[in-house]
């Protein structure tokens, strides 16, 4: 269970949100919505511990995440913006490197299999800078296949995806939720999942 209680964040003089509370239980997902600049990325970064809130708390399994950073990190897969994919590395190297930084080993065969599932068979050895925006997004999303994590926090995961990849990600999310996972995601696009809750900023 993820619980967010009375969260407040501002940037400079500008309050983005305050008194924000919600929770997410096994099998549930939440859609974070709001206009450009409303604070969706800021909220997701705050939930995962990459930004500090002005007020409020984030709890995982009943305990503040700041008191159990390692456990929370192990339970979490956070996919932020595109820049998390390194242009100078190949997609295979990207997956192996991000997994190593994340504290688990992924061999080349597993990385290739994840890329193949994401529709990128054959692109694994090209430097990522040669891939299209949608292909880069698929490289990033392939990480979801490489490590089991109870909580997926995804910032605009559908951005730049074509219809087939949107469908693939929808199915991935459905399977994750059906197996007791949770997902908190921002998206300007409709999300191809049965209605979850909404966090409107
Ligand atoms: N480190 C920072 N310093 C100053 N302002 C910031 C910082 N990070 C974010 N902001 C500002 O906070 C506001 C919210 O940004 P954020 O990226 O959270 O919005 P968003 O809802 O994700 O937007 P979009 O839909 O365009 O992705 C924006 O006005 C942004 O310029």
UniProtKB/TrEMBL annotation:
It comes from the Bacteria. Residues 2-201 form the ABC transporter domain. PROSITE patterns: ABC_TRANSPORTER_1 (PS00211), ABC_TRANSPORTER_2 (PS50893). Keywords: ATP-binding, Cytochrome c-type biogenesis, Membrane, Nucleotide-binding, Translocase, Transport. The keyword Nucleotidyltransferase does not apply. PANTHER family: ABC TRANSPORTER I FAMILY MEMBER 1. This is Cytochrome c biogenesis heme-transporting ATPase CcmA. It comes from Pelomonas candidula. The lineage of its organism: Bacteria, Pseudomonadati, Pseudomonadota, Betaproteobacteria, Burkholderiales.
């Amino acid at each position: 269970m993820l619980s967010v209680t009375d969260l407040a964040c501002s940037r400079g003089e500008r309050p983005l949100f305050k008194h924000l509370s919600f929770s997410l239980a096994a099998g549930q997902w939440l859609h974070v919505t709001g206009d450009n600049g409303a604070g969706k990325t800021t909220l997701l970064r705050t939930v995962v511990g990459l930004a500090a809130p002005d007020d409020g708390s984030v709890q995982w399994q009943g305990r503040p995440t700041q008191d159990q950073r390692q456990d929370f990190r192990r339970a979490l897969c956070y996919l932020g913006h595109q820049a998390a994919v390194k242009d100078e590395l190949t997609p295979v190297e990207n997956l192996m490197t991000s997994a190593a930084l994340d504290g688990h080993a992924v061999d080349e065969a597993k990385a290739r299999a994840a890329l193949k599932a994401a529709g990128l068979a054959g692109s694994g050895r090209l430097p990522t800078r040669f891939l299209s925006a949608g292909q880069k997004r698929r490289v990033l999303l392939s990480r979801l296949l490489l490590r089991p994590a109870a909580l997926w926090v995804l910032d605009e995961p559908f951005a730049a995806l074509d219809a087939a990849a949107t469908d693939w990600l929808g199915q991935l999310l459905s399977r994750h939720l059906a197996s007791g996972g949770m997902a908190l995601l921002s998206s300007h696009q409709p999300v191809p999942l049965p209605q979850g809750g909404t966090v409107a900023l």
